[in-house]
């Protein structure tokens, strides 16, 4: 059976590198606007071809990172859980995304206290059984108790220890209830034990895969949308599972520290 996935995207009209809040971002490494726009269109049409329903939020001149819609929060039932960004540079995104979801979908907003950082689906991913919450770089561990008030599955928290993989979605991608793709060096010993406990199959891409943020993927039914440039090793693991791979060149969006999943809020 196939589920219809709704995805919120944001056109990269105002996307550029105006500040540096993760190790991938360098103001001198500017975005080629035309390339970013072309990749965005490619991603959008691929999603449509794969049967996803696409929504677009209006880009804002002073919010370059709004393109990374995954960070805007989480949706559960009719509740929109708002993000609380760690960095002031991104905080005003919350106003725009809250308005978008309450106006267009009638979702009820849920806020964490202002001092408890939570960066949405960047740090919150799930299987059919559990939510997984990444903390330590952006989201704070204290977010867990607040989120548990509105989420309908147990939350398993995982500490993130590598600044290059500062959001859970840069180093962890559940493919099903039994298989996950991870970057092991992003987690503590304890975290790795928890991951192996939850997933009988733990797929480890190569170091080169992590350079293109391979874990930052979106799965739609048996399709994987992932950065161009993944290794044959990783490709073989997906193919063994009969997953069909679609590669998109996300180099322009890696300048901001993101790839496929960061650009895609799934709800
Ligand atoms: N420049 C953005 C930041 O540092 C990138 C966000 C990437 N998003 C993600 N879901 N990992 O916040």
What descriptors fit this protein?
267 residues; globular; alpha/beta; 8 helices
Summary?
With 267 residues, the protein is of the alpha/beta class. 25% of the residues lie in helices and 21% in strands.
Provide a descriptive summary of the structure in words.
- By secondary structure, the chain is an alpha/beta fold.
- It contains eight helices and 15 strands.
- The protein has a three-stranded mixed β-sheet, covered by helices on one side. It has a three-stranded mixed β-sheet with strand order 3-4-5, with helices on one face. A three-stranded mixed β-sheet has the order 6-7-8.
- The protein is globular.
- The two termini are 18 Å apart.
- The mean pLDDT is 97.
- The site of arginine has 16 residues, from loops.
Classify the beta-strand content into a percent band. 15-25%
Average predicted local confidence, pLDDT: 97
**How can the largest sheet be summarized?**
3 strands, mixed
Helix and strand run = EHEEEHHEEEHEEEHEHEEHEHE
Lay out the secondary structure.
Layout: E1 6-9, H1 33-49, E2 53-56, E3 73-76, E4 79-82, H2 88-91, H3 93-105, E5 108-110, E6 124-126, E7 131-135, H4 143-148, E8 155-159, E9 172-174, E10 179-182, H5 189-198, E11 201-203, H6 207-211, E12 218-220, E13 223-227, H7 232-240, E14 244-248, H8 251-254, E15 265-266
Parallel strand pairs: 1-2, 4-5, 7-8, 10-11, 13-14
Antiparallel strand pairs: 1-15, 3-4, 6-7, 9-10, 12-13
The chain binds arginine.
């Amino acid at each position: 059976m196939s589920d219809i996935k709704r995805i919120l995207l944001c056109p990269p009209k105002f996307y550029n590198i105006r500040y540096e809040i993760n190790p991938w971002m360098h103001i001198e490494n500017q975005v080629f606007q035309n390339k970013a726009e072309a990749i965005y269109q490619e991603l959008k049409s691929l999603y449509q071809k794969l049967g996803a329903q696409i929504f677009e939020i209006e880009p804002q001149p002073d919010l370059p990172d709004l393109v990374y819609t995954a960070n805007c929060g989480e949706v559960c039932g009719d509740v929109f859980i708002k993000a609380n960004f760690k960095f002031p540079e991104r905080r005003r995104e919350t106003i725009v995304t809250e308005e978008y979801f309450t106006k267009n979908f009638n979702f009820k907003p849920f806020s964490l206290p202002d001092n408890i950082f939570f960066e949405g689906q960047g740090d919150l991913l799930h299987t059919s059984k559990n939510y997984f919450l990444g903390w330590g770089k952006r989201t704070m561990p204290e977010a867990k108790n607040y989120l548990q008030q509105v989420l309908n599955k147990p939350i398993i928290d995982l500490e993130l220890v590598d600044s290059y993989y500062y959001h859970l979605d840069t180093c962890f991608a559940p493919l099903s209830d039994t298989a996950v793709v991870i970057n092991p060096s992003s987690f503590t010993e304890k975290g790795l034990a928890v991951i192996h406990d939850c997933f009988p199959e733990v797929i480890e891409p190569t170091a080169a895969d992590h350079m293109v943020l391979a874990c930052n993927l979106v799965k739609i039914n048996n399709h994987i949308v992932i950065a161009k440039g993944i290794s044959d090793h990783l490709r073989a693991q997906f193919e063994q599972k009969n997953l069909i791979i679609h590669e998109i060149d996300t180099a322009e969006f890696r300048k901001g520290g993101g790839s496929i999943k960061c650009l895609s809020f799934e709800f």
